[in-house]
Amino acid sequence: MSLIRLTDVSIAFGVHALLDKANFQLDPGERVGLIGRNGEGKSTLLNILAGVIQPDSGEVWRSPGLRLAMLEQAPALPEQATIYDAVADALGETGRWIAQYHRLSEEIASGSEEKLEQLGRWQHLLEVHDGWRLQQRVEATLSRLELPGDEAVAGLSGGWQRRVALARALVIDPEVLLLDEPTNHLDVDTILWLEQQLLAFQGAVLLITHDRAFLQRTATRIVDLDRAQLVSWPGDYADYLVKKAAALEAEARHHAEFDKKLAQEESWIRQGIKARRTRNEGRVRALQKMRAERAERRLKPGQAKLALDVGEKSGQRVIEADNVRFSYQGAPVIRDFSTVILRGDRVGLIGPNGVGKTTLLRILLKQLEPDAGTVRHGTRLQIAYFDQLRSQLDPDKTLVEAIGDGREFLTINGREQHIMSYLGDFLFAPARARSPIRSLSGGERNRALLARLFSQPANLLVMDEPTNDLDIETLELLEELLMNFNGTLLLVSHDRAFLDNVVTGTLVFEGNGRIAEYVGGYTDWLAQSKSVRDASQAKPEAVSPPSNKPTSAPKRKLSYKEQRELEHLPALIGDLETQQAQLSARVNTGDFYTHDRETVQQALNELKALQERLERAYARWDELESST
């Protein structure tokens, strides 16, 4: 039985229809990924499902007593509260009693005896209203999400605030969880953590995300909001891409055949008087129906046309850093970092939020002086910087003013283009182009900043979180543009698929100010770092002669079977190490991840199994050696 059902639901803002007699159903246990262009109505659909807004027409049915929770893009949390208070607050009045009881319990535990009478009053309320069961749920949720209950909400980072918002959603034990761009502004570790939470969640999930790796991992069905219609595609995101491409190709063929027939019928109806006198009235009615069908056809919206104004060629060495150090309030952010970035390199920066990725960019761009070490720039550098805080856009200016700087025409790759035409390439209609920056949505601001960035001649692109708020289609166009860019790129992103598709090398913050350099993208870094860890753990220390030191456990004589096992273990370990080395070499080749997903996964599983066998063999060897 379904949990939520939409039947012929329509809603429009002005003349723009977001949903036009759309139908949808969410069943227990499903994890549905909702995709579509920015501004097409995805968030509006979530608000309709949650009952926050009502559609213009159609039926919205929810299972009686349905427990539904929604995590918005910018969750509102009670600022003057602890994490415990904020999570308990989601349970309503009983939750606030639980928070009061928790606070008093803490105060009494720290020696405040005068509040025992108040504590008894809260205890009575909780007993009468089944509060103890809800209190256990609050504490279990905090434990599951690894949240420190007594920390203040006000001082939390964006990632931790989103974790608290998820706890508020989960504590009501929802049957349906609605998530609107849950990975925005999260670092990779937190995104992986969120994936695990959703995979373990027993209820139904409907999520909006532009993170393709997250979508592939979590969704069991894709729903495409396309031209005010909801189209369901069973299977994961990879299946959807194949089926959607085939559907669009079939649609294009159908439209071409239809338009050809319509043109023939229009030609027939316009023949001379004799033809009109003898014409078939049924054929005329069929033509009128075709005209109406053509008028109602909603064509697929145009694609953004992203193009870079490539500057002159830079020198071969673009940036050289030598033993750079930087600390903040006594804590090392960058320690003994050296690198050489050459023309044509596309370098990704990977690390948790707050670790210092933007600081490193500013040092490499000479916007910030290091505590020690040197940074040198090559010749003929033309730098364009995409700022994750969007600080380069004056909110009081119109889009035309912000991009054109008073110019009516822009020169892009040696060709003059009118500012309105240029903004049209970034999917801004003339009315929107004359709107102030402050009125734009997050996705529109991102496109606006890309438009400004790409209008400047540049041979060094520096992009700090460019993918936030972009729809998947624009994201893929940006990927293609950067892959074909013949300049140099420095990129900060938590989008794993974007990093894999774009960069040729990565700088990874590995803790305590240390930054390591790897070849390839995010997946390549994972494989290489795992191989390094495996290699360091794989080979045991040289076996020392039996020690004369006394031990707490008495020695025993090995049985014949154990003695034979000990004799064969070195050969077994050697064989396993050889297999591991061969498979690791295969995994670390440049073209390994171009194979199909099943082949890649099978090899990675084999590598993991080999490591586990090695660890068991080493443990058994140590056990038998120590017994002799």
CATH topology of the largest domain: Rossmann fold
Total helical segments: 21
Q: Give the distance, in angstroms, between the N- and C-terminal Cα atoms.
A: 64 Å
Q: For the CA atoms, what is the radius of gyration?
A: 31 Å
CATH class of the largest domain: Alpha Beta
Q: How much helicity do the residues have?
A: 40-55%
Strand order of the largest sheet: 5-6-7-3-8-9
Q: Give the CATH H-level superfamily of the largest domain.
A: P-loop containing nucleotide triphosphate hydrolases
Classify the beta-strand content into a percent band: 15-25%
Low-confidence stretches: 539-555
Assigned CATH architecture of the largest domain:
3-Layer(aba) Sandwich
Largest sheet: 6 strands, mixed
Task: Describe the protein.
Helices cover 45% and strands 20% of the residues. It is an alpha/beta fold. The strands form five sheets. The chain has a six-stranded mixed beta sheet with strand order 5-6-7-3-8-9, with helices on both faces.
